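Exercise: predict the fold of this chain.
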Amino acid sequence: MQAIILVAGQGSRLRPFTDHRPKCLVEVHGQPMLAYQLQALHAAGVRDCVIVVGHRARQIQSAVGKRYRDMRVSYVKNPRYDSTNNIYSLWLARGAVRDDVLLLEGDLIYDPALLTDLIEMPYDNAAVVDRFRPFMNGTLILARGDRADRMVLKRDQGEGFDYGPALKTVNIYKFCYETMSRELMPALGDAIARGLTDDYYEMAIAEALDAGRIQMNVLRTGPRVWAEIDTVEDLAGAQRLRIGLERGAGVGASNRLTRAN
């Protein structure tokens, strides 16, 4: 199992906190968001992590280095981070896919046990979801039991959309190697060839689900807490959460990440 973390974006909605640092190094409870990700991955047994960087890439690489404890860390750079979206960032990582993948976005904090729960699910492909609430925004999943039927991007949630049964994606996914390498990466490549570089990778997942080319299950967060941090208001809300991060744990990247802020 390997991880891919997408952190190429500029984080403009989180200014002024991102005026002099990349979004993933903004602190929550005195620790950079990326520290939560790396620690959770390590605790879940992941030992291979690929980080897709762009904006302030050198800051991130300097903060993390090539290892987090005994987890290898490598980098893929998106040189067009200022004119593309995460569909392009993920596609650039296609050559780094060597195993089943945990796909994460870099602006998250969450109960580390969510990753263990996800890995232990007896399904090849799964998305972490929470019940939809009115303050939430973004991609949704419609499911029957623990089976995803549809993924609905924000742009497709038109007037009259029924949010009642909807589940909010947490932007944490598990995909088996076959799905990632034979289905999703080629689908991303087709979208890139059509000029859709400013779109979201969820578009490819949604199309594959609709066409029946992949099956995906859902893992509900239940009592496990999480936060996606896009805005100053999101950051303030995240500061009120209790997340099980080991403060000051480990050496090397753990300490560099904190000093980088």
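Check your answer against the key: The radius of gyration is 17 Å.
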